[in-house]
Amino acid sequence: MFESAEIGHKIDKATYKAAVPALRAALLEAQVNLQENKKIPVVVLISGQDGAGKGETINVLYEWMDPRFISTLAFSMPSDEERERPPMWRYWRSLPPKGRVGIFAGSWYSDPIRQRILEEVSLKELDAQADQINRFEAMLVNEGALVLKFWFHLTKEGQVKRLKALEKDPRTAWRVTQWNWDRLKTYDKLQDVAGHLLRLTNTPWAPWVVVEGTDDRYRSLTVGQILLQALQKKLASTDKQESPVAPMVRVDTDGRTVLSELDLSLRLADKTYEDELSRWQGRLAELLRDPRFKGRSLLCAFEGADAAGKGGAIRRIGAALDARQYQVIPVAAPTEEERAQPYLWRFWRHIPRQGQVTIFDRTWYGRVLVERVEGFCAENDWLRAYTEINDFEHELAGSGVIVVKFWLQISQQEQLKRFKAREQIAFKRFKITQEDWRNREKWDAYQQAICDMVERTSTGNAPWTLVEANDKNYARVKILRTLCERVEAELAGRTPKGLQPLSKKARKVAKSEFPTAEDNGKGTEKSKPAGKSKAKGKGQ
After folding, report:
1. Rounded to an integer, what distance in angstroms lies between the CA atom of residue 540 and that of residue 471?
2. Would you list the DSSP string of 413-444?
3. 330, 425: one domain
4. Cα–Cα distance between 316 and 480 in angstroms, integer?
5. How far is the C-alpha of 242 from the C-alpha of 245, rounded, in Å?
6. What is the separation, in whole angstroms, between the first and last Cα of the chain?
7. Do 178 and 300 belong to one domain?
């Protein structure tokens, strides 16, 4: 890939001076258009060899364009805060919003290249990282971003010459250190690794541009012209770039689904609930104080039908934890700031540090549920979201985040009962809106979307736990028990298991461990007069 950048490209001074004024004017005009329309974000990666002019080129772009609408993000070795989160966290946080240009000096390519040069990863692992990068960049482009990737190249002799020239000039001598000369020893290895990675990530939606870095004028003019052409073309286009997405495939032609097979009659007696609640809350508190958890983090994702009891379940988890150890993130419609970023950005920013817990009350699955059913996004957007979500969760799990996902299911009859009850209780009226009543009319569409979601996103690292939530006692204990079992398994290094819909055999076990109303007529909520329950934390 580097042959065309080794032929001695040069621009003479007169040609350069003649071309720059018109280029600057056009870049500024395109930048104003970009800012006023707020149509797309622009992501520019500046990578390459030491001394190839990366810093000088960034300075030139700041001189030629309006610096108020450009952000430069320089990435070196990750900080302590960054090391305690997935590697991509720091790049997600730095993505430019729509209407701005983000220049990345160092990027998501830096660590894979460094790790391979130091032989910290195998070639197979490098290829896997390249595949992950391709999917990440495809997501950015599908979300509307313009992604430009520049690699500044020098021959080995050219790099030596360049470093000596910088060292000789008093104005630039500070930029050359012993570290740069030591890095020169790995030139050949860098060529092999970078060439291999660039070939694997030279995609149609985000191709690499290899620029010879020997001549400053050639390099600056080339980057400026490519940036201008790409901006003008993107801003003039009315078509949104979309990667091909296969249509949904149905597998429930017999009418049976993962939701229809749930046994919503499962109940838990109040006395048993009281004992089990204390048991599993205590166990969760112990597990999260385990020294092994200091190097892990926990992310709980709650989804469910309206009035299914998500808030009550979350409060029972919080009651077992130190308030300094966790935060609850309620998810509603995206803000203006969030709409200016890729869909998953607002969730990435809340990924917990090691030793911490984050609980999402509604999640990134809104794209394949609410946005799908209500038509808030195009079909291509929610179809590709399944893969993007799986990539997101896979990266979290690979970085030590324990991802536990719950879907709380209730029947239509139970939902109606809870809606009416909320209208009668003063401090619960805020929970019921016209939107909730309207959503009931789309019950069947939501049920299908939920089944598709489980089918496509219940993975080995982040399985769905489907919770029979008609009885709040049973649901809360199952959620706490699942959390404990998952955390314990992860700390012990065991493969996680998802608690899928109960089989007949599993139902018998559940009934023996957690008595139902039919098995134990005494002590259930039904058998007690209203207002007489003494169970701890009974209210929603």
Report:
1. 11
2. HHHHHHHHHHHHSGGGGGG--HHHHHHHTTHH
3. yes
4. 8
5. 8
6. 62
7. no
Amino acid at 353: R
Q: Is residue 159 part of a domain?
A: yes
Pairwise CA distance, residues 325 & 318, whole Å: 10
193 and 298 part of one domain: no
Contact call for residues 108 and 78 (beta carbons, < 8 A): no
Confirm whether 401 is domain-assigned: yes
SS (H, E, C) 257-322: CCCCCCCCCCCCCHHHHHHHHHHHHHHHHHHHHCHHHHHCEEEEEEEECCCCCHHHHHHHHHCCCC
Residue 525 maps to a domain: no
**Same domain, yes or no, for 398 and 472?**
yes
Model pTM?
A: 0.84
Count of domains forming the chain: 2
Instruction: Please give the average pLDDT of every successive group of 10 residues along the chain, which has 540 residues.
Output: 84 96 97 93 94 91 95 90 95 96 95 93 96 96 95 87 84 80 83 94 94 93 96 86 70 84 96 96 97 96 94 96 96 94 96 97 97 93 95 96 98 91 69 71 93 94 96 97 96 62 45 39 35 41
Residue type for position 84: E
Same domain, 420 and 495: yes
Percent helix, strand and coil across the chain, each rounded to 5? 50, 10, 35
- The per-residue DSSP string of 152-212 comes to EE--HHHHHHHHHHHHHSTTTGGG--HHHHHHHTTHHHHHHHHHHHHHHT--SSS-EEEEE
State the Cα–Cα distance between residues 373 and 434, nearest whole angstrom: 17
Q: Is residue 510 part of a domain?
A: no
Tokens matching residue 201:
């990530």
Question: What backbone torsions phi and psi does residue 45 show, to the nearest 5 degrees?
Answer: -100, 125
Tokens of 455: 């089918």
CATH value at residue 26: 3.40.50.300
Nearest CA to 365 among 407, 397, 335? 407
Helix-then-strand count for the chain, H and E:
21, 10
Domain of residue 386, residue span = 281-500
d(CA 319, CA 147) in angstroms, rounded, equals 45
